[in-house]
Known about the structure:
Elements: H1 6-27, H2 34-41, H3 45-51, H4 55-77, H5 85-100, H6 104-112, H7 119-146, H8 154-166, H9 168-171, H10 180-194, H11 199-204
Helix pairs in contact: 1-2, 1-6, 2-3, 4-5, 4-6, 4-7, 5-7, 5-8, 5-10, 7-8
Amino acid sequence: MARRAGSDGIRTEAAIREAALRLIARHGYEAMSMRRLAEEIGLGAAALYRYFPTKQALLFDLLRAHMEELLEAWGRARLAAPAPAIDRLERFTRFHIRHHLPRPDGVFLSYMELRSLTPENFAAIEGMRRSYEQGLIEILEDGQRDGTLDCIRPRLAARAVIASLTGITTWYRAKGPLSPREIEDTYWNMIARMCGATKTERATCSTPA
């Protein structure tokens, strides 16, 4: 897609992304028009199309950026084998919560607006989602093999874990009764039980910073 060079262009593009994320999360992809988006940031419609030629291109860009950021962050945070599967599962659980809590609009788009993508764009985003999911599946499979986890269907369990953790963004409020750390600790205990970790294993596994 065409991009404007220079610092002003970079700032304008960032403003477009931020406003689009907010408007789509609030009103939905179909209800948001490019004209409304241009008005939101005080930009002419013709200028907006120089950054994103179509609304579909904008949505795809937002979802791709969300997944690229997630995969890059997880690549830095993950514990690789031969670290114990139980420790890797805890790292995944806490990482997923910490990464997604500050990004509720991005999470909303990532799950609720996949249906609005063209088949080609959907396939690209779905491939990135599967890559992230596969990392968790491998952790659960390793735990099943070494006996530290009792997870009969790792692929199904991985989807249940991710859905459970992602759902936190729908109800979490910064001024709510639970702190992010309390949420992490509570959900880690639940995820460990869900995946068949024994009480001893849950008590002795590390707690990543």
